[in-house]
Structures are given as structure tokens and as C-alpha cells.
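Ops channel
N.P.: pipeline sanity check, posting one input/output pair.
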């Protein structure tokens, strides 16, 4: 019991320090070292061995996924192609359903190849302007942005997200594994989150909570006063969709590696939108520098937390938790869901948790006698449940970007990205047990 309690305390400490704003760059090594000490593991050997092996292995395996996604995102941000897509969708909704609209904008961009770890920076200025124009409370702004990249677009069939790539490489499955139940699960998530955020928008308005709200952390003056020009020179909306569609076709239709598919999208977007890059050649260099910097920041933050998961996997407490789960008489698919969820919660990262779970239990998953396609899809959905506890680095980054704190905005993040994915498992697993 003491060994398990150490793990729980480590995760609680991780959450508290993250809540206080401590960077994942500090948290990963620091909490890992404390866990090493209290779990009585060999210090130097564990930090230089399992910790660095997990962190560097994640970096080696997925750097180029982050890199091309960040470059693609920088192109869409700097050329205003993302804004063009947003304005097209905004015209379709005619100024209604503002918060759910942000889900769709983020979803289109992330399903189209922009890394979920950097799409925040692309979507935030657009989302802020739409919330301002329609006088919607900023309390739900972070949830609207992150729900669009960390739910149905992260775990849905055909997604180029890293959470769909990890099980592909670990299990040898395709990007569209468990297509029918996976698609139903994605649609379920989209509909329920859409309804929740629209309900919250109207409920907050009835309470007198609007865009300008003295009860929230104030925006910087430049963001409070900035406007999204509707008449500026931006790419054609339909043209802006071409690289996105091309990436999906290359990735799912021609079965290209996700890195190559997004690279093709980068080349095509540069050809189509080069005239919209400010300062042309100098702007192009700035664009690549920005995308490259974003990719390094995103993958390092995640990899250092994955290292913590690598240390966790060495502890007696982790072995006891896994042994306890294996001793419970539950279906194989629920075993996958629970173990991946727990690993994601430990790491505060969906992809990091999947990496830890597949490293520790990959052979177990493969030999349970159930379809590997089902294992693939369930692990992708389950990874997006407990990962979104308060210590998740991506949410801390987003809250900082939105100038809000956990107390102000975490409730809607919790509902849309913990509660809804958990309920989705109760929808999808029975469908799989029926053979769909």
C-alpha cells in the first residue's frame, strides 16, 4: 500500500506544482527525482537510465511529427489561411454557436495536420475575436479551443494526430482502425461537447457573464483592443482547405507516413499562399524559425513528462497497480482502457501515457485475443481521459495563453476532455463487443 501511495502523492505533487505554474521542463525531472528517492530506486542509474531512455526515445520517435505539424501551423497562422477557414465557418453559422464554432475551426485544422500542441497559437487570436464580437464569456474559451484538438480529432479514425500514430506503430494497425465504432465515438464526442458549450454560453449570459468580466483575469490592453480585420487580404477559403484535404488523402488514402503527408501539405501551402507571407523571403525565414521553435518547445515539454512515466514504470507501486488490474475479472478492452487512462493520468499526457502503457504492456495487449484494431481505438480514446488532470502541460500552456487560471476555466475543460471521453468509452466498447 505504501508503494502505491508514493505514486499517488507524486501525481498530486505534479498537479499542485503545475497548478502553481511550474514549467513541465522543471516538473518532469524534479518530480521524477523525488519519486526515485521515496521509491528507493538507485538515483543516478534511474535518472540516466529509464528516465532519459523514455524521454529521448519519445523525442527520437516523434520529433518529425511535431516538427512538420508546427511548420504547417506556422504557415497557416502567418499567411492568414487559418483565419480564412475560420471566417468561412463563421459565415455558415451566421454569428451563432460561437463556442462550438471554435471546436470546428480547431478540429478542421488539427484533423488537417496542424499539431495539437501548437494549434492553440493559431486559433487563439481568431477565437478571441469571435468571442468578443458575440459577447461570450472568456471562461469557456480554453475549453472550446482544446476540445477541438484533444477529443474527436485526436482519437478519431484517420486522424494524423500523434495519439493515432503511436498505436499504429506499436500494433501494426492502420490509421482507420475500428472505423465504424471509432467514427460513432467521434461523432458522439462532437455532439455532446457542442451541446455542452452552447449550453454554457447561454447559461453564463443569463448570469450576466459576458466577454468583459471583472471577475476574470484581465486581458492585456493590446489583446483587449485588437480587432480581426474582416476585409484584409487573406487566401480564398476554399483554397485554404486544399492542403488540409491533401494531407488527409495522402495519409489515409495513399497510406503515406504522417510526416511525409504533412510535408506535402507544407510544400503545397507554400506554393498556394506564398504571396500572403509578410516580407516574403525574410518572412519565410521568420515563419520557419517560429514553427521550428514551437515544435522543440512542444516535444521537449512532453518528452520530459514522458520521462517521469518511465520512472513510474520502474516502481514497485506501478507493478502492484498493474498486477491488481490484471487480477480483476474485466473484459480485455476495459483492461486496455483503464491501464492507458491510468498511465495518461500519471504522465499528464495522452501521448506520453500511451508510450508508457505500450512499453510496459504492449505484449499483453497483443496477446489478449481481441482485435488489435479495437485495442488501437480504445487506447486512443482512453489516452484522452485522465491526461487532462490539472497537471497536463498542454492545458497549462493554453490557460496562460488565454490569460486565465484553473479556477476560472478548468471546469469546462474537465467536462469536455475528461468526462465526455470517459462516457465515450461506455458507448464504443459495447459496440465493439457486438462485433462492429
Amino acid at each position: 500500500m505504501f508503494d502505491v501511495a508514493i505514486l499517488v502523492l507524486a501525481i498530486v505533487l505534479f498537479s499542485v506544482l503545475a497548478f502553481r505554474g511550474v514549467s513541465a521542463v522543471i516538473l518532469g525531472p524534479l518530480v521524477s527525482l523525488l519519486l526515485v528517492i521515496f521509491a528507493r530506486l538507485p538515483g543516478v542509474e534511474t535518472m540516466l537510465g529509464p528516465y532519459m531512455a523514455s524521454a529521448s526515445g519519445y523525442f527520437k520517435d516523434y520529433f518529425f511529427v511535431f516538427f512538420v505539424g508546427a511548420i504547417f501551423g506556422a504557415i497557416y497562422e502567418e499567411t492568414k489561411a487559418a483565419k480564412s477557414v475560420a471566417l468561412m465557418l463563421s459565415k455558415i453559422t451566421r454569428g451563432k454557436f460561437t463556442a462550438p464554432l471554435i471546436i470546428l475551426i480547431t478540429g478542421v485544422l488539427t484533423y488537417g495536420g496542424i499539431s495539437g500542441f501548437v494549434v492553440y497559437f493559431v486559433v487563439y487570436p481568431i477565437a478571441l475575436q469571435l468571442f468578443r464580437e458575440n459577447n461570450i464569456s472568456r471562461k469557456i474559451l480554453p475549453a472550446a479551443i482544446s476540445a477541438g484538438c484533444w477529443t474527436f480529432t485526436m482519437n478519431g479514425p484517420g486522424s494524423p494526430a500523434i495519439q493515432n500514430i503511436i498505436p499504429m506503430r506499436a500494433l501494426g494497425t492502420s490509421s482507420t482502425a475500428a472505423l465504424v465504432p471509432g467514427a460513432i465515438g467521434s461523432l458522439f464526442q462532437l455532439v455532446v461537447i457542442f451541446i455542452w458549450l452552447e449550453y454554457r454560453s447561454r447559461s453564463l449570459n443569463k448570469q450576466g457573464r459576458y466577454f468583459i468580466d471583472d471577475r476574470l483575469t484581465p486581458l492585456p490592453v493590446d489583446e483587449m483592443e485588437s480587432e480581426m480585420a474582416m476585409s484584409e487580404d487573406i487566401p480564398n477559403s476554399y483554397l485554404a482547405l486544399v492542403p488540409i484535404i491533401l494531407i488527409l488523402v495522402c495519409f489515409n488514402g495513399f497510406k503515406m507516413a504522417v510526416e511525409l503527408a504533412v510535408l506535402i501539405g507544407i510544400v503545397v501551402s507554400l506554393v498556394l499562399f506564398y504571396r500572403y507571407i509578410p516580407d516574403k523571403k525574410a518572412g519565410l525565414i521568420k515563419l520557419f524559425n517560429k514553427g521550428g521553435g514551437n515544435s522543440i518547445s512542444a516535444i521537449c515539454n512532453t518528452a520530459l513528462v514522458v520521462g517521469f512515466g518511465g520512472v513510474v514504470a520502474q516502481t514497485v507501486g506501478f507493478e502492484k497497480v498493474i498486477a491488481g488490474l490484471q487480477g480483476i475479472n474485466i473484459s480485455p478492452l476495459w483492461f486496455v482502457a483503464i491501464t492507458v487512462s491510468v498511465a495518461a493520468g500519471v504522465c499528464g499526457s495522452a501521448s506520453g501515457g500511451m508510450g508508457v502503457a505500450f512499453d510496459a504492456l504492449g505484449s499483453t495487449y497483443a496477446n489478449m485475443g481481441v482485435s488489435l484494431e479495437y485495442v488501437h481505438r480504445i487506447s486512443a480514446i482512453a489516452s484522452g481521459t485522465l491526461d487532462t488532470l490539472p497537471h497536463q502541460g498542454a492545458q497549462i500552456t493554453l490557460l496562460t495563453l488565454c490569460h486565465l487560471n484553473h479556477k476560472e476555466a478548468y471546469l469546462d475543460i474537465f467536462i469536455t476532455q475528461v468526462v465526455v471521453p470517459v462516457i465515450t468509452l461506455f458507448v464504443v466498447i459495447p459496440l465493439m463487443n457486438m462485433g462492429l
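N.P.: looks fine end to end. Residues 2-433 form one domain.
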